[in-house]
Amino acid sequence: MLSAVADSRSGLRPNDFGPEPLGTWVGQVDGLEAPLPASLARWGCRNNRLAWLGLNADGFIDAAADARRRFGAARVAVIMGSSTSSIGATEDAYRELDAEGRFPTALRSRLVHTPHSLANFVQDALALEGPCLTISTACSSSAKAFAAAERMLRLGLVDAAVVGGADSLCGSVLFGFNALQLVSPEPCRPFDVNRRGINLGEAAGFALLERGPGPLQLIGHGESSDAHHMSTPHPEGVGAEHALDDALARAGIEAAAVDHINLHGTASLKNDEVEAALISRRFGPHVHASSTKGFTGHTLGSAGIVEAVFSLLAIETGLMPGTVNSDALDAACGPQIRLQPARAHVRVAVSNSFGFGGTNCVLVFARGE
Known about the structure:
This protein has one domain: Peroxisomal Thiolase, Chain A, domain 1, CATH 3.40.47. The protein has 11 helices and 14 strands. The protein has helices spanning about 1-5, 45-55, 60-70, 85-95, 115-125, 140-155, 170-180, 240-250, 270-280, 295, 305-315; strands at about 15, 25, 75-80, 130-135, 160-165, 200, 205-210, 215-225, 260-265, 290, 320, 340-345, 350-355, 360-365. The protein has a 5-stranded mixed sheet. Helix 9 links the parallel strand 9 (about 260-265) and strand 10 (about 290).
């Protein structure tokens, strides 16, 4: 991942997903055909296989097991964000209805055909017994998981929380966004004057939150719901700005203290225009802001965790991504939005997640002292 960021190398590719592939580009994850371990086979579907791949990355399962040993299984929460969960499996089941109009036997699992399947699967896979919560607020889902976890920790309800999310490619999102005329037939170009829309992607990511100091810290979060329109942001970005104000206030910092911003930056016409104007009026030219959707595509309910990871890596390594695939920035963009990657000492990073219906979340991460 870091080498791709340094080289501005996109992971998007021409879409060949599904029985009738839509003419677009996607961020598709390889290796999802491998079955789950026998002990977890009852959870089998593309989304849970994607989550299993994420759980096995970077020693996360061991970290979660260590938290379980230290605090007890009942004191570790699981808070997952997902916009579609395992709906792809439900689509498959409807394609294969039997003569009586029922799902085929192999696809009748009640564990799979529910929006809560992902969170239940993660809790089972990690042998945890604490609060288990699914957040489904469109593209801000797995960002809001961080905010929910912070509240649980602050209130003493739990001692640790596994947060994150997973959303996999499926026909509902590909053709749904295409029906809204938001899907680009070429690699997406966030904030580019000639952008033509979004590319869909799939991803899973996880983080373990605990109280107290550490090398990487969540120091603020802000949430809002502007309820302006089902799929279009408020034209002045009022809800997004409220979320930003709330996050900075919780963090106890001014906008001038921010070094890097991972923008929501979907490459859709209106979303980019509104976000660019917000960044231009609130932050100075020293800030390095960029969208990473050109690397991964828009991973919907898992976008919050994916972009939190980009932000945390910027703090940890000093490598701030550029905005790949884009060539000429829209006139609404200020000097904050950068096309090329850069290296610097990053103390504070902000991650923006703005979902359909005006459900907004801004996270503030910082380097621990």
